[in-house]
Amino acid sequence: MANTENLGSKKMEQTTENENFVTKVLSFFNKYQNLIYGIIIGILVLVLAILAFNRFYLQKKNAEASAQIVQPIQWYMQGDTASLNMALEGDGENDGFLDIASSYKLTKTANTANYYAGLTYLKLGKKDEAMDYLKKFKQKEDVLWYACQATIGDLYDDQGDEANAISYYEKAAKGKDPLFTPIALFKLGQMYERKGDWNKALAAYETIEKDFYNEYNKMSVAQYTERARANASK
């Protein structure tokens, strides 16, 4: 009997607490309903504005930029100094990578223009400018992004900055591209060898063997694997 009374008492207390909670919530809502509705409407307006921006502005701009970037890519592919300069600066009628990157900000094509601008500067031997633009390239096209990290790693290696070179090669080595990734892994292994970290060098070479066996053979990585294995066991 006592247990039944206690259970009944607890149920009533819980019901009372629930009612009090609901009452508080309703009271809060009634008190601040204008503010709450304002916040909800503000969020909806923001979402609609973003959708409209993407559909009516950004997509249009990206289509324009995509058409514009065809010519500078062709100049870049020609590879001579005059063509490379036009690829960067344009020719008065067609924009170059630099104008596309600045005039079509936020678009995917502007991002690509940064990448090609970096590569163009690199071909012209302007490594500092190349580094600046390559670092502006964000991860929107995975294959190009990983290749870009490897190129930045090369630039740091040229500067003798082993720590940053390794950092960027490590980023590049996370890709799955059958061409770029094994090269990045090999360079990473070479950097670890220089530092005397034979275990990490071995891991890099073994990853090429496991995931990119054809490239492992083409690049003759086996000899480096054996050397790293011999030194790692010491």
Topology (elements, then pairings):
Layout: H1 2-68, H2 70-78, H3 81-89, H4 97-103, H5 108-123, H6 127-136, H7 142-158, H8 162-172, H9 180-195, H10 198-211, H11 213-218, H12 222-232
Tell me briefly what this model is:
This protein is mainly alpha-helical and 234 residues long. The protein has helices at 2-68, 70-78, 81-89, 97-103, 108-123, 127-136, 142-158, 162-172, 180-195, 198-211, 213-218, 222-232.
| Residue-averaged pLDDT | 83
Tally of distinct domains: 3
Name of the CATH homologous superfamily of the largest domain: Tetratricopeptide repeat domain
Instruction: Give helix and strand order, one letter per element, not per position.
Output: HHHHHHHHHHHH
For the record, the CATH class of the largest domain is Mainly Alpha
The number of distinct helices, counting runs of at least 4 residues, comes to 12
**Helicity level:** over 70%
Strand content: under 5%
Distance between the termini: 79 Å
Reported by name, the CATH topology of the largest domain is Serine Threonine Protein Phosphatase 5, Tetratricopeptide repeat
How would you classify the helix and strand content by structural class? mainly alpha
CATH architecture of the largest domain: Alpha Horseshoe
State the major sheet: none
Shape: flat
Low-confidence segments, given as residue ranges, are: 1-12
Number of strands: 0
As a whole number of angstroms, the C-alpha radius of gyration is 29 Å
Task: Write up this protein.
This protein has 234 residues and is an all-alpha fold. It has helices at 2-68, 70-78, 81-89, 97-103, 108-123, 127-136, 142-158, 162-172, 180-195, 198-211, 213-218, 222-232. The chain is built from 12 helices and no strands. The longest helix is centred in the N-terminal third of the chain and has 67 residues, at 2-68.
